[in-house]
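Data deposition worksheet. Section B asks for the primary sequence of the deposited chain exactly as it was used as input, without tags or linkers unless they were present during the calculation. Section C holds the resulting structure in C-alpha cell form. Section D is free text for depositor observations; keep each observation to a single sentence. Incomplete worksheets are returned to the depositor.
Section A, Depositor: J.P.
Section B:
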Amino acid sequence: MPNKRWLAIALLMLAAGLGALALFDTAAPAVPVPAFTFADAGPLRLTRAPSSFTVQGAPVPTALVTPTTSGACITGAVVDAVTGAGLAGATVTFSTFAGAVSTTTGRDGRFELKTRADGVISVAEVAAPNHFPFRPTWGQSRLQLSLVEGVCITGLTLSLVPRLEYEGEVVDPGDEPVEGARVTVSTEHEPPGAALVTNSDGRFRFHAVDGALVVATHPRFASAFAVVDFRVSATKQLTLRLGRRDPDAGPTSVMLDGLVLDEADAGVPGALVRVHRTLSSGEGSFERLEASLETDARGAFHLELESPGPWRVQASTAARVSPPLDTLGGPVVLRLDRGASLEGTVRDDEGHAVASFSLLLQRQLGALQLDALEPHHVVDPRGHFHLAGLAPGRYQVSAIAPGLAPAPPVSVDLVAGGDETVDLRLGVGASLSGSVLDRDSRSPLQGARLSLEQTRDEPVAALAVARTDERGAFTLQGLPQGRHSLFIAAASHHARLVSVELKPGANGPLTIDLGTVPDGGTPQLELVGIGAVLKASGDALVIERTVEGGGAAEAGLVPGDLVLSIDGTPTATLGFAGAIERIRGAEDTTVTLEVRRQSSAVESVTVRRRRISR
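Section C:
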C-alpha cells in the first residue's frame, strides 16, 4: 500500500475517534473535527449530531466510516426507537454478494460483521422481540451499504419501534358497540396484517406505529378509519365510529385480477404488485397500502379487497416498473417499462463527502402535489448513491443527514431507460434551543418531544426530532432556514404548534409552556391559524373544512373554496409547506387570501388568525 494511504489512515483514525465521541456523547461540548481524505474516495467529515431525523417514529439509520487494516467490516447496534436502549438478541440480516448473512446482537445490542469483499450490500431484515421488524420485500431494501476495502462502517445504528399496545372500540352511528367488526392496521408502506375482530363490547387490542391507519369495516355499516396520532399515543385509546351504509352502495368486497407483462407481452413471474387507496375525511386525506404481493409463474395475481375503490395499482421488479393504474376492480394489465436510474453525490457546503445520509424522492404530480417514495438510506464513504428501477416522471430530490440542514430540493426529469445525475449539498443550517415547561407550575418537562411539523398533505419523508432533558432543555440542529411550525408534545399535556422564524446559526432560547390534560380528558392541539383544514389541489389549496369560531368561518370561507394566493404571492410559488406557513402567524393578526368560490368568482378575503384547540 502506498505510504500516502497509510498516512491518510493514521490521520483518519485520530479524526474518527474524535468524531465518534462527538456523535455518541451528545452531552459533551462540541469537538472540532478536521476534514480528512480516503484514498480514491475524496474528502470526508465526521460531524456531531445532537438531534436526529425520524421516519414513522423511528430514527433513520446513522453511521460513521473509519479505516481498518484489512478487509471491510460493519459494526453497529440495534436500539429501541423510543428509549435508545440496545436490544439484546436482535437479528440483523444482510443481503450480500454471497447470499444472506445474519448476525445476532449481544447484551448491549451491538453486532459486528466482517468481510473481505468490496461492493454494495443491503440490510434485508432487522428483528427483535416485542418490536416491529424492518422487513422489506427481498431484493428491494431501502438501506444500502457500500463496503470498501480498508474501510469499516462503524456505529451503524438501526432503530426498531416497540410494539406498544393500544385499546380500541368500534361503535355504530348511535354510539352502540359493534360486535364482529373487522379491524386492520397499516401504513403508507406496510400493508395490513391479519384482521382483528371486535368482541361483544365492540373492543379490540392492537399494536401500531405513529401515523398508522386503523380501519374498521362491517357489512351493515360504512367503514371508519383513524390515525394513530399524538392523542392516541398519549391515551392509548382509540374509538372508530362507523357510518350509515348507503342501501344503494355496491358490494363490500371486490376481486382484483391482473397480469404483469414485459415489453414482449410475456408474463413476468415474481413481480411485486402494490395496491394503494386514498382515504378521506374531514381531518384530511391519508394514503394506505392495501396489499403487497408477487405475481405467480404466469405473471398473474389475484386479490380480494374488502374496501371500495378506486385503487392505484403498480408493479415493479429490480430494474423495471409499470405506470400506476387507477381501477375500480376487475381485470387489469400492467406493462413493465425499463425503469430510470438516478445517481449522484451528497456533500456538505464545503465540499466534503457525507458518508451516511437519507435520500428523499417525491414525484411531482402538480405545482403543490407531490407523491413521496420511501426514503433510501445510504452509507457510502464517497457520499455516492445509485438508484435503479424508478418510474419515469419529474421528481424533487433532496437528502438529509443528522446535524446538517436538508439539501435544497433539486428537480430532475427521469425517462424510461435513462440515467440521470444529481449532486446534492447539505448546509450547516440553523439550530434552535430552549426549554419546555408546565404552564401552571412552571416546572421543566423531561422527555417532551419536539420536531418540525409534517402536515398531512406535505409528503416530507423525515423530520428532525429532539427530546428534552431533566432540565426541560432541548437543542434541534440541522434545521432549514425560514418560517416553520414546531410541534411539541409531552405526556399528560396538550400539544402545541408554535411558529418560529429560523435564521442562519443559533436561534433561541425559546421557552414553550404546555397545558395539563385534566384527568380523563383527551389531549388537544393548540395552534394559531385561520381555523381551516387545507389540502393541495392543482396549483391551489382547497378548503376541506372550517373550524367553528375560527377566522375562516367568520370571514365566510366554506369547503370547496380554492386559495389562489396569500398576501399577494401565488400558492403555486410558495409550495404547499410554504403556503401553510404563510397563512399561519402571530395571534390576532390578519392574512389576505385570494379565493376562487365554487361559483368561479374570485374574491380577496381578509382572515384573522386566532388561537385554536382541536
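Section D:
The chain has five domains: 3-160, 254-338, 340-424, 430-523, 528-613.
Residues 3-24 form the longest helix (22 residues).
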